[in-house]
Batch of 2 targets.
Target 1
Amino acid sequence: MAKLDTKLKIESWDEQPYRELPDGSRFTRAEVTLSGTDDAVTAATFEGLMFYRPDGTSSYATLMRIEATLDGRAGTFVLRGTGTYDGTTARGDSEVVPGSATGDLAGLTGAATSASTQADYPHMPLTLEYEPA
C-alpha cells in the first residue's frame, strides 16, 4: 500500500446554518475549496454537513473530490468521510468511494485520515493510504 502525507491549503470556506435549535445546537452545510501544496494533489473541493452541539463541538459527514497525480498517474477520486471536532482538533476518516476514480487513477482504492487544529490554518493535513489499480 502506498502512502501520501500532504497538506491542502484552504482557499475558501463557506459554511451556512440551515437549522438552528432552541438549545443552541445547529446544523450547517459547508462548501470548501482547497489547493494542493505539493506535486501530488492539484486541487480539492468538499461539501460537509455538520451538527454543532451547544458547547461548540461537532460531528460531520463529508464528500471530497481530489485532483491528483499519484505515482505518475493523473486523475480524480472522491473520498466519503465522517469526523468530529472536540473544540480543539478536527479529526476525520474517509475512504475512496468505489468506482469514483477517473483517468489514470481509475480503480484506485484506499482510505484517508486528517487531524487539524487552528495552528494548522490555512492548511489541512491529509494522509492517504492507497492501492493503485
Note: Strands lie at 2-20, 26-36, 41-52, 58-70, 73-85, 90-96, 109-116, 123-131.
Target 2
Amino acid sequence: MNGSYSDKFNVWGIGLLLTNWLISVGAVVVILFSAQFISKVFLPAVVLACQFVLMRRARAGRDSKKGYCYVLPFLMSRVLFVTVIIMVAINIYYMGFIPDEKFADGSVNRSIPYITILIVAPVSSAVMLWAMYRGHHLSYCYQCRATYGLPAERGFIGRVFNNESHYQLRLLTIVSIIATVYSWTYYLVRYSNANMNSADKFYFNYIPLIFYLFSGAYMVMHYWSLFAFYQKNIVADTGSDESNTLVRFILICGDSVFLSEKKTNSGEFEPGKEVFDTPFVQKYYFRQHLGEQDAYGIFSKMIGRDVKFELRFLYENQNINGNSNIFHFLCQIDRRSAIEHAGVGGTWYGQAQMGRLFDARMVDVMLAGEIRRVSQMANAYKAYDSNGKRLYQVRHYRPSFTFKELMHLDVDFNDPTWLFVAEDNEDSRFFKIRRFFKKYVGGFDM
C-alpha cells in the first residue's frame, strides 16, 4: 500500500469521528424534536429505532476489521436502550397503577406521563460517567486494543482515535450534565403538569435542541482544524514512514530484562523524554509474515552469531490501515555476560527494578504494552479457564509471575482470548451480567 492510501485512510478516520458525533448526538435531536408531535405512548418506538441504528453502526464498525473508532455510537445506543426501558415503565405505570381520581383532580396529566429531556439527559450523564470511570477497561475499547495494540503501535490515526474518543466522551458528559441540571431545576421550580405551555416547550425542547446543535457546529470546526493540522504537518510523513514491518525482541536472562535508554521521537506525545526500551529493534519493508527461522537469523546478527539463545514468538500487531505490522519476540540467554561482545549498550533490570521504572513512567509505551500484555495473559492462564471461571476456588487469587517462565508457558500470546479473560473473569464485578450481555446482546457489554 502506498502513502496515498494511508493519507486517504487517515483523512477518512478523522471524518468518521465527526460523522459518529453528528449521528450519535443527532439521535438525541431527533428524539427531542419528535417528542413535540408524537404521543408519549409511541415515542419509545422512535427511541428504539434510533437505538437500533446506532447499535447496528457500532456493530458494523467493530466487525469491519478496519479498526476505526465507533465507541460513541456504542455508548449512545446504551443510553437510548436504558431510556426506552424507563419510558415504557412509566407508560405502564400511568396506564395501570394510577387511580382515576389522580387524573380527575389534575395532580397527574395522562397526556404527559414524562418529559423526554428529563430522562435522556440524566441517563446520558450516568452512562457517560460510567464509561469515563471504566476508561480503557470498557469492553468495546478493550477488544480494539487486543486486536490492534496500543495507540503507539497504530500510527497517527491510532493516537488520534485514542485522544478524540476521550475528548468526545468528556464533551458529551459535560453537555449531558448541564442539560440534566437546568432541565430538572426548571421542572422542580417552574413547571406545572396541567399543560405544556410555550415556556415549558422552550426550556424542555428548544434549548436542548439548540445546545446539541451548537455542540455539533463546534465539533465540525474542531475536526476541520484537526484535518488542516494533518494536511500541514503530518501528511508529508505518513506515506514514507508507515509501510513497514517492525520486529522487536525482548531479551531476558533469568528474571532480568536487557534495556537501553533512549529519547522519545517527535511522533510521541512527550518528545525528548528519556525512557527505557529494548535495543533489539529492526525495521524492514512491509512483509505479511515473519517465520521464527527468519526471526532467529535477524536476532542472531544483532546479538552475535556465537551467542546461543532461545527464541519464542509472542504476538503480532497490525496497523489499522493494514500496511504496517509489528512482530514481537522473546529471547532468552543463559548468561548475562554472553552479550558483552555484541556491541549493544544496555543494562540488565530485575523485576523489582522494572516495577520502579513503570511507576516512574520511564518505560517506552511499546515495551510497557508488551510486558503488560504477556503478564496479564500469563496470570489469566494460570488462574482461570477460557470461560473466565476460577481454576482454584480462592477469590482474587493472583499467581506469581516471572519473566523466565514465559519461554515455556503453554499459552498462545497471539490469541486475545486470554486478554479478555484477564479483564472479564469470575473475580471481576458484574461478571454474570456481562456474560448475559455477551450471550444475548451480541457482546456489547460495558
Note: Residues 3-238 form one domain.
